[in-house]
Amino acid sequence: MAELKNDRFLRALLREPVDVTPVWMMRQAGRYLPEYRETRAQAGDFLSLCKNRELACEVTLQPLERFELDAAILFSDILTIPDAMGLGLYFETGEGPRFRKIIRTEADVAALPVPDAASDLDYVMAAVKEIRGALAGRVPLIGFSGSPWTLATYMVEGGSSKDFRHIKQMMYATPEVMHALLDKLAQSVTGYLNEQIRAGAQAVQIFDTWGGVLSGPMYREFSLKYMAQICSGLIREHEGRRVPVILFTKNGGQWLEAIADAGADALGLDWTTDIGDARRRVGDRVALQGNMDPSVLYAPPARIRAEVETILAGFGEGNGHVFNLGHGIHQFADPEHARVFVDAVHELSARYHSHKA
Predict the structure, then answer these.
(1) Which of 102, 128, 306, 341 has the CA that lies 20 to 30 A from 86?
(2) What are the residue positions of the site described as Transition state stabilizer (predicted)?
């Protein structure tokens, strides 16, 4: 593999000195880019795009052609694992993901296989290898997965949900069934991320999109416990350097101390958590990633720069900050405003780093 020319993202995740704060955006390859929409139309549909290694590589690289980002993230979907378990993933226009088979009973859970990531999800690994080759050491590649709890919500609800009625019923009424499902998913995610690392991912992120819908005790028992299990089973050294792990629980700011004990190198923050407060609470243990409200990108450039400066000042001087949005970039964001954001992070952050990397 080519030598890494820009490693500030990996260094920041390990709280090592950098010259400027690194930045990337969740969903940076997506619908806000006209070139992405063209490639998706060429693929025919979203899943076909995910499963075509050349096109998945193309859309992964598209934002890097526009912006001076410090990392690329694999173009895929968090629901590849349930799909590989035989649930029949499909997408309804305007409705989001759906499954042809829904998990509701102990027998349903018992019948689920733990996928073999190398064979059952070979198209993902093919995309990782293709992207690593095409990046040629330009920036690191991030692999990712959904958390067991988040994957389970889609599998039990059958798709997106507003009230999480079925999965919370399972959790409270038959917790042993819920734990059996989550354990299978934790095994699956561990194998999936390790296979991504073997294929070339240089850092991995676990997206716990729906952990924040739980109460504190339920979060620890049904979400965080399984993310900690995954962290303990991941490959942490590959190709001669550490492979950092990022945990991101949306709406999880109240549990940062517990999340920091789960074994990851960095925690993702959404915009509802003050980054200075987060650093005071856990910044001596983990790096922090985040956390600008994606809606700021609707504002004029001067307002975007001001918000970047506010967050940089909130974190303060020193190491351990990866700048990001607090969630995925919105599809209606102006790409030129995304450029203002990325450039502002690099320009305004240099004075917060006394050591040149």
Answers:
(1) 128
(2) 77
